[in-house]
Amino acid sequence: MMIKKYGIPGLTAVAFLLISTLAGAAEERWTFDGNIHNNSLAVSPDEKTAVASYSERSDVVVYDLAAGKVRKVLKGYVTPRNALFSPDGKAVYLSDSSLGVVRKISTGTLDVETTLPLGAGAFGTAISRDGQRLYVNNEAASILSVYDLTHNRPVSVVTGFAQPRQGIKISPDGKTVYVTNFKGDKITLVDAVTGDIRGEITGFSKLRAISVSADGRTLYAANSGSNTIAVVDTQKRAITATIPVGQDPYGAALTPDNRYVYSGNLGDNSLSVIDTAAGKVVATVTGLDAPRQAIVFSKDGARAWVLNKDLSIAVVDLKQNRVTATIKSPPQA
């Protein structure tokens, strides 16, 4: 279902009231959804800057990747949920579900440039390839908000979800937004332009992170309830295989060449390495601390940056499949 524009630019009065009410609730309760835990790691397009967050910490850490050290600690958060850079790398967008906002932060100065009010529960985020639209999951209101980043105003609110959390991806052709529903254990397909719901994919078990192949034909999803990675045919909208991995998988990160999927296994502090052609685990990376969704690959496919629980970053050599360095985190604020 789509709530379209009427009166209030980009939002109906109903949607505006809903978001305002939830934002007020966040202020009163302070930690709005602290029982839900996740982490996030974003790396700038030039691979010089990394932004790391963990929902149990009120600070967000910015790293200088080239120097291998902390650049700055950003304070003033409650339950930071997701970080992602704009395609041009000039800004990073940070969501906080308790504050009910997404903050646009300058990569150069690290100052907040804009604050977008999304309502308490603002969680996972995705940005269009042209950098003009931001899609924001709201797990509390079970909605998807669409923002025009050129004019910093809301475009629409899509309803019909069931606790959409961190998992949200845009198809490579930019036409479809894949939204995970934690409560419903399904993925909803949303038309990226019109906001209409086009269908759903079911059969998951405690659905976490997702990745989409470069050709858009295959989706990989982490099932923390069954310790598997689901392989999905996006044309058939059906699960075609499930691959056993480590304990409590949250991550399902696809390498740039699409040859491997790395599963972040919270339960046994490991990464399972899946050969996508063979459809099985071919290696395991150890020496991590509670890895979740926060796995990012370098463009050349040589390394991965994996976030540990203390917000330190493990550097993984993808040829050797082992941790070769760790960028230390600052003490918790």
TrEMBL record:
Signal peptide residue numbers: 1-25
What this protein is called in its record is: PQQ-dependent catabolism-associated beta-propeller protein
Keywords from the UniProt entry: Signal
Protein origin, superkingdom: Bacteria
Which Pfam families has this protein been placed in?
Lactonase
